[in-house]
Amino acid sequence: MVIHNKSSNRTPWIFFLLVFILAIPFWLSGMAVEQLLQQEIPINLPISALMFVCPMIAALILVYRNNGPDGIKQLLRKTFNRKIKRKIWFAPIFFMEPIVMFLAYGLMKLMEGSIPELHFSILKILALFFVFLIAGICEEIGWQGYAYDMLENRWKALGASIMLGVVWQIWHIVPHLQLHPPEWIWWQCAGSVLLRVLIVWVYKNTGKNVLAAAIFHAMNNVCSFLLPNYDSTIAPFSMFIVTAFAALIVTFLWGSKTLAQYRFMHNR
Length: 268
Fold this sequence. Notes:
The protein has helices at 12-40, 54-79, 90-111, 122-152, 157-177, 182-205, 210-226, 234-254. By secondary structure, the chain is mostly helical. α3 (90-111) packs across α8 and α6 runs parallel beside α8 (234-254).
C-alpha cells in the first residue's frame, strides 16, 4: 500500500519542537531527584535520560496526524526492517564504534598515562547493549525514521546530518548539566554531532534502515560507557578526536552530497 502523505507540508521543525516539549517533564524530574539517583543507578545517568522515548512519541503523533494508523504501520515497518542487502555493512554497524573506542582509549593513554586499563565482561556488554538498543530504537524512529529525510530534501546529506546532530545535542544539554561540567558537555556534544554523520552514513548505505542506525547508536553508547574515566573530560575529548577523523574519512570516501556514493566504486 502506498500512502500519499502531505510531504510537501511536513516540516522537521514541528517535530523538533514537539520533542523538546515532551522532554520537559523528564528534565524537571531529573532536577528533582538528581541526588538520590546518582547513588542508586549503576551507570551515571540522570532520570531525565528516560526522555529517549520523546522522539518516538513525537514521530508517532505527527505520522498519525498526517496518515492515520496506516502511517504508523509504515513507520514501524521502516524501523524494524531487518533486511540489509549488502551484508558487509554489518561490519561497521557492530565493529566501527569498538574500533573508535580502542583508538580513543589509546589517545587517552598518550595524554594521561595514569588511565586505568580497559576492563569489561561479556555480561556487562550485553546488558548495556540491551538497554541502549531500546533507547536507540526509540530515538532513531524519530531522528532518522521521521526527521532526517525531510532535512535531506532541503540540504545535502552532510549538512542535514550536522543540523540534525546539533538539534539532537541541544536536546541533551539539560540531562548533561545535571551530572557533568561544561567542558565535558562541550566535547561530548561536539563528538555526538559528528557521530550523527556516521549514523546517517550507515542509514543511507543500508537502504535507509532505521534499525541499523539504532544499533550503531547503541554501540556508541555501550563503547562510551566502557571507557575508563568516562566522567572525566579526557574521555569525550578523545572520542571527539577519533570520531572527527572517522567522519572526515567517511565524507571524503562517500561524498558530502549523499554520504552514499563511494568514490572508488563506479558501478553501484
